[in-house]
Amino acid sequence: MVAGPLPAPSGPGKDRLRLWIRLLRASRTIEAELRERLKKEFNTTLPRFDVMAALYRAPEGMLMSDLSRFLLVSNGNVTGIVDRLVSEGLVARARRNGDRRTSMVRLTEEGTQAFATIAAAHEGWIGELLGKVSEDDARRLTGMLTSFRSNWEGRE
Amino acid sequence: MVAGPLPAPSGPGKDRLRLWIRLLRASRTIEAELRERLKKEFNTTLPRFDVMAALYRAPEGMLMSDLSRFLLVSNGNVTGIVDRLVSEGLVARARRNGDRRTSMVRLTEEGTQAFATIAAAHEGWIGELLGKVSEDDARRLTGMLTSFRSNWEGRE
DNA sequence: ATATGAAACTTTAAGCTTGAAATAATTCAC
DNA sequence: GTGAATTATTTCAAGCTTAAAGTTTCATAT
């Protein structure tokens, strides 16, 4: 999967395979770097950051199922991450009157402050790690990725 | 991190942030789909597939450290995955005469056959999932990703 | 020869991840 | 209104992942 150098395959369809391999290697490389910095600088993790980022954009809160759908991870996964964030005082669950199966999850005041700091650093890191990509290329690449995704997404 | 729809941020540097988010969402979406199919069709996992793919390209075998470097994962990680592949008879470790710290890891006959089958299906899936990307765009995107990566890689 | 350090690998603890099974609450058909 | 599906969430087992600590082996400088 994460193939790299070596006997460059050729033939029909190989271009897409190569694209996928590059895509995967690029995101894994960046992810690894972010994970390391989040740990070193803020003693946190990428999954926690993802959850907080989602909640930061939704001051009114999110349901667990909204979170898992948005983050593209399983339900049970989110449960665990939120549990940990709650125990750290960064996130709170609020039972709802309407539907007692659900609970609104939101950042605490402390969580909001903490996230703002981390997010600023994060944006700087991305700027650094993708620094060699021109703003122009960035926009072009983004466009390609967006359209490709919307094409096959929502199949099943 | 995996932000998506909603209040499109703007400002300097935001284009690269947006690019990163798209990149991550694209690869996670495809990865999830591949993982699911590997499980359903072949009862295996993405990490096992990755290791087997690496070994398939190296009939003479690879050291554990080669594997972990190539796959961009930690040493301990590879140990576990290889352990499982060995217990399934798909991979073999061979002690070396020269250096008794190391062992050459390679696919067994059974592993080679199994991988060939899975790899064929895998390539088809990629063709399907990235089908809407023209071969031309695929090559262009690949080029962009390659150059961006080689730029900041090998920093530390 | 022998310490000293480096290298290759494994082990461990903690956390992330999934898919499936279990719980609980709601909705809907009758 | 009762029972049957549906929905939201949690729990669970198995496996993946990392960073750090530990083991064994090798290289090298005395």
UniProtKB/TrEMBL annotation, chains A, B:
Classification via InterPro entries: HTH_MarR-typ, MarR/SlyA-like, Tscrpt_reg_MarR-type_CS, WH-like_DNA-bd_sf, WH_DNA-bd_sf
Coiled coil feature spans: none
Record has DNA-binding as a keyword: yes
Superkingdom, taxonomy of origin: Bacteria
Span of domain HTH marR-type: 16-150
Key words of the record: DNA-binding, Transcription, Transcription regulation
Annotated Gene3D superfamilies: Winged helix-like DNA-binding domain superfamily/Winged helix DNA-binding domain
Protein's recorded name: MarR family winged helix-turn-helix transcriptional regulator
Protein source organism: Mesorhizobium cantuariense
